[in-house]
TrEMBL record:
The keyword Heme does not apply. GO terms for biological process: ubiquinone biosynthetic process. Pfam families: UbiD, UbiD_C, UbiD_N. The keyword Ribosomal protein does not apply. Residues 306-438 form the 3-octaprenyl-4-hydroxybenzoate carboxy-lyase-like C-terminal domain. SUPFAM superfamilies: FMN-binding split barrel, UbiD C-terminal domain-like. Residues 18-90 form the 3-octaprenyl-4-hydroxybenzoate carboxy-lyase-like N-terminal domain. This is 3-octaprenyl-4-hydroxybenzoate carboxy-lyase. One of its GO terms (molecular function) is 4-hydroxy-3-polyprenylbenzoate decarboxylase activity. Residues 103-299 form the 3-octaprenyl-4-hydroxybenzoate carboxy-lyase-like Rift-related domain. Gene3D superfamilies: UbiD C-terminal domain-like. Keywords: Lyase. One of its GO terms (cellular component) is cytosol.
């Protein structure tokens, strides 16, 4: 889908927040909410209904916002497409990246104000989120770094624990940023990074694309915007950041240092363990005049959807390469937007759903359960998927179990939670995979597997039939 075919595309955070506010989807919170837990509790209660905007959190002069992309329909709206076009639009952008446009510092709003030798805790209103978190965390920071070997950039969101004036600890799961860090470490160097806080919705979404290494996710953001993303070079390193971002922390992931990080309440709604993690040294903080700080409430809709929509787009593309008759996929919210995949298939051969199941497990190690359903089942409705399992699935015939595969290290039922100590990284997340074929036979007798429907139920316009405002007093109806 090209951008000409799309309605208004929201390319700018402030424009998007104004749009939410104008449509009663942004709650302005009274001054004084404590950065420790209280602010997050308020944002969590509003999750999926309204974004929460705190103009003066805890007396801090920088406002905090949370939950501005907490519904699938809002994300589609930001992209200028309908919900049914969401995955195809994201996939097209991921496959046709648009190179960014470098602008001079004078035109980079994110560098209007510069704090040298900053104290992160004093400059930024960093909230403490869940009950047992080990202090304040940056949860909506896009970490941008260059591959030391090739110079190509990468973007990911990583949780960052702020535990000193200019020192922070970071969780890097074994993906691209970690690979860059290992390469820098091999060369005996620190890895220069930028942490971008307060990006527009589509750039945040682009950061979650599942691509090969050496694929700058900012170019996917440009493609989603329909115009090259304006980027600025950092003041202390050669990383390029979105020029219109609210806040940028420039720093380095230190070659050899480790500090304790965690516990931290993560997306599966459990705490990940306290462990030794890599350390970021902060060099400068730059921001716009009157910047806005973004925090993501862990495990709430903004967090889950940011990860699940780009994954769904990638999984659909992956499955369709082998099975063009895969029609749709959904990572359920109950499965924390990561672990449970529902696949809609126009089945042509018996056995095919099991091939689809195996293909899906190969696509991402986080996937723990796959349910394949027919085309008359809506994969976005968990009740319909359960109905398919209840009426089309037999455990002895239609179930696939694979034990001892790689799974999510954040799932506490994997090896992570097995002992009282913490397993070494290479043993974490060992997990079983479960596949359910909940499709009906390709050929069946008469109406054995025909879903009951009433002709007209999809097409009748109820408002045309119901008498508006009409009340009936049944006690005084004439007896006849
Ligand atoms: C709110 C949020 C927090 C995240 N926190 C982390 C994290 O702490 N560590 C991590 O490795 N990935 C985290 N992720 C996932 C990565 O950002 C995501 O997998 C990204 O696509 C990885 O990029 P890469 O494939 O370029 O390495 C988080 C994602 C979101 C949406
Ligand atoms: Mn990447």
């Amino acid at each position: 889908m090209n951008s000409e075919a799309r309605k208004t595309v929201h390319t700018d955070l402030r424009g998007w927040l104004s749009h939410l506010s104008a449509t009663d989807r942004l709650a302005v919170i009274k001054p004084g909410a404590a950065l420790e837990h209280e602010l997050v509790a308020i944002a969590k209660l509003l999750d999926g209904r309204q974004a929460a905007y705190f103009p003066q959190p805890d007396g801090h002069s920088i406002p905090v916002v949370s939950g501005f992309m907490a519904r699938r329909s809002w994300i589609a709206e930001a992209m200028g497409v309908s919900e049914s076009e969401l995955l195809a639009t994201f996939r097209a952008a991921a496959e046709q990246p648009l190179p960014s446009q470098l602008v001079p510092q004078a035109e980079a709003s994110c560098q209007q104000v510069v704090h040298r030798q900053p104290d992160v805790r004093a400059v930024l209103p960093v909230p403490t989120h869940s009950e047992h978190d080990n202090g304040p965390y940056i949860t909506a920071g896009m970490v941008i770094a260059r591959n030391p070997a090739t110079g190509v950039q990468n973007v990911s969101i990583n949780r960052i624990q702020v535990h000193g004036k200019d020192r922070m600890a970071i969780l890097m799961l074994p993906r691209h940023l970690y690979a860059f860090y290992k390469e820098a470490q091999r060369r005996g160097e620190d890895l220069p990074i930028a942490i971008v806080i307060g990006a527009d919705p589509l750039t945040l979404l682009a950061s979650q694309a599942i691509t090969q290494i050496d694929y700058d996710e900012l170019e996917i953001a440009g493609s989603l915007h329909g115009s090259p993303l304006r980027v600025a070079q950092c003041l202390t390193n050669n990383v390029h950041v979105p020029a219109d971002a609210e806040i940028v922390i420039e720093g380095r992931i230190l070659c050899d240092e480790r500090e304790m990080e965690g516990p931290f309440g993560e997306f599966p709604r459990y705490y990940s363990a306290r462990e030794q993690r890599e350390v970021i040294a902060v060099d400068v903080i730059t921001h716009r005049q009157a910047p806005i700080f973004h925090t993501i409430v862990p495990a709430e809709m903004e967090h889950l959807l940011l990860g699940s929509i780009p994954r769904e787009a990638t999984l659909l593309a992956h499955l369709q390469r082998s099975f063009p008759n895969v029609l749709d996929v959904h990572l359920s919210i109950g499965g924390v937007g990561r672990y449970h995949l529902y696949v809609k298939l126009r089945k042509t051969h018996e056995g095919q759903p099991k091939n689809v199941i195996l293909c899906a497990f190969g696509a991402h190690y986080d996937i723990k359960k796959v349910i394949v359903v027919d085309e008359d089942v809506e994969v976005h409705d968990p009740q319909q998927v359960e109905w398919a399992v209840a009426t089309r699935f037999q455990a002895d015939r239609d179930m696939v179990v694979i034990s001892g595969a790689q799974g999510s290290a954040l799932d506490p039922s994997t090896t992570v939670g097995a002992g009282d100590g913490v397993a070494p990284v290479h043993e974490q997340g060992l997990s079983a995979k479960l596949g359910l074929d909940a499709t009906r036979p390709v050929v069946y007798h008469e109406h054995t597997f025909t879903r009951v429907r009433v002709p007209g139920e999809d097409s009748i316009d109820l408002t045309a039939w119901i008498e508006p405002g009409r009340r009936v007093d049944f006690t005084s109806l004439a007896q006849s």
